[in-house]
């Protein structure tokens, strides 16, 4: 087993432990979701617009709330995730909610080995690319899975946020903005339930915006836009406060919290 494969196996084991905890958490609000509440955020809905009748591939989908939310808007969806526990729950939810969504368990970098069709949309969001050591094969896979004229969209936490270590409840700058060396983190709890008794063991990598954009360009995609936003849809960093729009901001906002990229596969 290569070193990267070992990292992926450790991450998979951690995500398998998180699934049951996240499914019961206030953050994922399963009761409201089952009742019809969307899990999608304003940036995402605005970026992709009317998805009715379109095919959508959701990368690193966790247990499928966003995938199913897109299907409720009329898309035919396929979700990918490395966690078999997450995929089991996603399939169960899709069946229960009669969603037009199927789910495949695999490492996102291996997607093209498991999914052969092409899609109108490839979508991914929040806490995804940091699990990948190299974005070039990721971007190449996205290009392979897009139809000509198809759209790729990512909403993700800004790389500046990942320069900090948060394990003691305070933000301490510790990592490079674009760090090639692997980062190992071990801590009690999970972002959706910090009081949980599980021990999260995680290997990750930092990718600057140039890494993201250039990987997509090298894969043959055309960048439509890159936006940065001074707010987060999730209260997953220390000392955030909710603003009037329901998003979360820092008390002293000195850098963006979210970026989004939309790219097109030209015909």
UniProtKB/TrEMBL annotation:
It holds the Pfam family Methyltransf_25. Keywords: Methyltransferase, Transferase. GO terms for biological process: methylation. SUPFAM superfamilies: S-adenosyl-L-methionine-dependent methyltransferases. It comes from the Bacteria. GO terms for molecular function: 2-polyprenyl-6-hydroxyphenol methylase activity; 3-demethylubiquinol 3-O-methyltransferase activity. It comes from Winogradskyella maritima. CDD domains: AdoMet_MTases. This is Class I SAM-dependent methyltransferase. Residues 57-150 form the Methyltransferase domain.
């Amino acid at each position: 087993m290569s070193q990267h494969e070992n990292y992926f196996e450790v991450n998979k084991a951690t995500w398998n432990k998180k699934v049951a905890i996240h499914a019961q958490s206030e953050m994922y609000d399963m009761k409201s979701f089952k009742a019809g509440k969307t899990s999608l955020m304003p940036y995402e809905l605005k970026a992709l617009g009317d998805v009715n009748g379109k095919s959508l591939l959701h990368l690193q989908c966790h247990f499928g709330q966003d995938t199913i939310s897109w299907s409720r808007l009329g898309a035919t969806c396929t979700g990918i995730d490395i966690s078999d526990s997450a995929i089991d729950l996603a399939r169960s939810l899709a069946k229960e909610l009669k969603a037009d969504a199927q789910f495949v368990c695999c490492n996102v970098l291996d997607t093209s080995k498991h999914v052969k069709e092409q899609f109108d949309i490839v979508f991914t969001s929040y806490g995804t690319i940091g699990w990948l050591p190299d974005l070039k094969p990721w971007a190449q896979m996205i290009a392979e899975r897009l139809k000509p004229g198809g759209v790729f969209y990512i909403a993700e936490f800004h790389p500046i946020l990942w320069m900090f270590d948060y394990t003691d409840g305070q933000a301490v700058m510790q990592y490079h903005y674009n760090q090639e060396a692997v980062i190992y983190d071990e801590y009690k709890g999970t972002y959706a339930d910090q009081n949980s008794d599980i021990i999260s063991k995680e290997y990750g990598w930092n990718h600057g915006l140039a890494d993201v954009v250039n990987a997509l360009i090298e894969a043959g995609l055309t960048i439509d836009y890159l936006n940065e936003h001074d707010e987060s849809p999730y209260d997953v960093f220390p000392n955030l406060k909710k603003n009037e729009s329901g998003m979360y901001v820092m008390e002293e906002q000195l850098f963006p919290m979210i970026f989004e990229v939309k790219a097109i596969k030209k015909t």
